Amino acid sequence: MIGIMKYLSCCYRDWCISRQLWWGHRIPAYQVSFRNGHPKNQKADSHTMWVGGRCYQEALEKAAAQLNVNEEHLELTQDDDVLDTWFSSALFPFAVHGWPSQTDDLDRFYPSTLLETGHDIIFFWVARMVMMGQKLTGRLPFKEVYLHSMVRDAHGRKMSKSLGNVIDPVDVIQGVSLEDLHARLEGNLLDPAEKERSRRGQAADYPRGIPECGTDALRFTLCTYKAQGEDVNLDVNTVQTYRFFCNKIWNAALFTMNALPDNFEPSPMSEMLADCSIMDLWILSRLSDTAAKINDGFQGYDFPIITSAIHKFWVQNLCDVYLESIKLSLRADAHRAWVSRNILLTCVEAGLRLISPFMPYLSEKIFQRLPGRPEREEPSICVAPYPTTKEFSMFDTSLEERVALSLDIVNRIRSIQKEFGIQKLSGHIVCNNDDLRGVLSQMCPTMATLSRCRKLQMTNQEPDCCLATTVASDCALLVEMEDIDVPRVLERLQAKLAKTSTGLKKIEAQRSMDSYEEKVPQNIREKHDQQMEVLQADSARLGAAVAMLKTAR
Length: 553
What we know:
By secondary structure, this protein is an alpha/beta fold. It is 54% helix and 9% strand. The chain has 20 helices and 11 strands. The chain has helices at residues 2-10, 42-45, 56-67, 85-95, 104-109, 122-137, 169-174, 178-185, 192-205, 215-224, 236-259, 278-299, 303-325, 334-355, 360-367, 397-419, 434-451, 486-511, 516-519, 522-552, and strands spanning 29-34, 50-52, 74-78, 114-118, 144-148, 151-152, 232-233, 426-431, 455-458, 466-472, 475-480. Strand 8, helix 17 and strand 9 (455-458) form a beta-alpha-beta unit. It is elongated.
């Protein structure tokens, strides 16, 4: 640091002015000339005499002293150029607030709290801001620095025009065809060989062009990647996946607004809790837990944790479970429907506030269409309070464990229906735990709705001709065999299992090759690992289904 400050003060080398900004700081150097009528001075007339100064007057005094003339005989012209990008950027934290004047904005907003930047310009920019801030103001310009990841293409390669793998954010937001991507190459100063390589790269990565994904989906995607310091391999298909997530949020909000009668006025939470069903309390517990995780994530700048919690709440908790479970409640008696509508609106509105920092456009669009609450009428979601555990403190571990068991039964029924080719099965639940039996009895209609089975009921004795699967140590699911064509299903599952085993052996053979780690590229090895996980899960699932059918025979 001492060396850099010595360099800046002594100017051992010319300062680079090749990267100038129109708003940059003008070079504090003045060219000296004599006014008309004064005897010629060879040193001044050569137009090579320059002086530096913090202001015009200081420079004028220096020039007059060096030439030994009165100031009125001299005329100074400041250099039109500005200092380079990094110099102006180094002054940015305090110069934008009116420094060197002691303005109200400078007192209020300087120093700031956080700087967000990339690790590649720590010494180009961050270190300069720290040095300038300490030297010129006596204070550090910020307290924390968040280093974001560097974005690469889907294959982990650095983006390069010659490779044709540069991703323009505007193209991801608005979409672009492959033909337009090719056409842009014609305007680049690339030789024919590089252009052809770029075309091949674009055709391989974007055979159908880049789909329109929108700003919110792109922003959310970038925040889902690994923690700071690691490179981001940006895959446009991943961005499109989160565009579909945006569609799911929109459809959930549309379902909610259609479920609300005209001139619906939301009621305070305190008026509803006493009449909430198990699923109402469960979704409020999920909302409370999600708000806690997200606020903890913001404290640690752990954006992948935050986005994962938001996605899980909207998709797995709200859309896949709660929305489906209350469809019958919305058509039930007036009071039951009133409670469900209020809980649904509460969750959607809070979910929008949770996601608003990442998806401001979508959340604002929906927020403006939701009925406002009498106790809190914000004009925009931007100024609405962010959900916290103080607002939502309904987390219930015991309730979540019981509902989790019910959802496990739902997943078992869905899996059996899918693997065995049954459209709607008939099932029975046997439970030896009295407390758990009471909860499952209440949940039977909900479980039947979520699993789309023909019927599901509690029973004290195991019926005959049933296929049994253990759900917990004291709970089992029984499926009536009359719904299953055992020989046909068994033959089909065994064929699938054999195909899966062949795929596993093939990948295991590739991974056991000599120098596999050294010779095979990292992206291929990661792909093999992912394929192994999928095939192993499929093998375990199919093996369990085959074992169940063989036992039933």
